[in-house]
Amino acid sequence: MPAFAGFSEDAVKFFRTLRKNNTREWFQPRKDIFDSSIRAVMEDLVGHINHEFGKFAPLHIAEPKKAIYRIYRDTRFSNDKTPYKTHIAANFPRQGMEKHSAAGYYFSVSDEEVEFAGGVYMPLPDGLLALRNHIVENDARFARIVAHKKLVESMGPLYGGSLTRVPKGFDANHASADFIRMKQWMFFKAIKGPAMMRSPDLLKEVVMRFKLVAPLVVFLNEPLERVLRRASSAGRLV
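The structure corresponding to this sequence follows.
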């Protein structure tokens, strides 16, 4: 596989100009620039990431065209009616599981910043309960994972929205009470500026952070896989 070369200056200029001209009239005559300078490069990058996933997260290998989000914004429920995103992103869910309700990996690229993330973003109610129980039952292991020195140095502290109180049925005095209150469990890092987007080291930076967050992704998917198996078994019995 040829080495990943980074995004070109044309890609940086495209996003920078799109931000100022976010209209169909500007974008459509330049869609071929987007396809060749941005989407095609992103597909190449995802292919390289998939190759690395084969070494440490094979269940997250994703077909590039499906992993990459569309450039078109969903404006139905937004006051912002601009039609296009000013970044390109890819998501790597656990194979066979929902994209946002299971734990996975994510990154996005724009002229303003590169974002890296790993964890679970929108667990469904039964999955949320299973995750909290899993943390209670494996609190020491979870604490070790999220306090890993290199992980925190590279991605910052564990991130996610939280309830104001420990949910009903859980011990408010439990050692992991702060983790139990959480509704999301993720690591997230943004590196500002266009330099990372243009750098051939972008691939190395993505893979390095995904490897560090992999133990958390594995931990979070363990109870969600059990929930999925129970749901599948119940479906077969109906």
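The mean pLDDT is 95.
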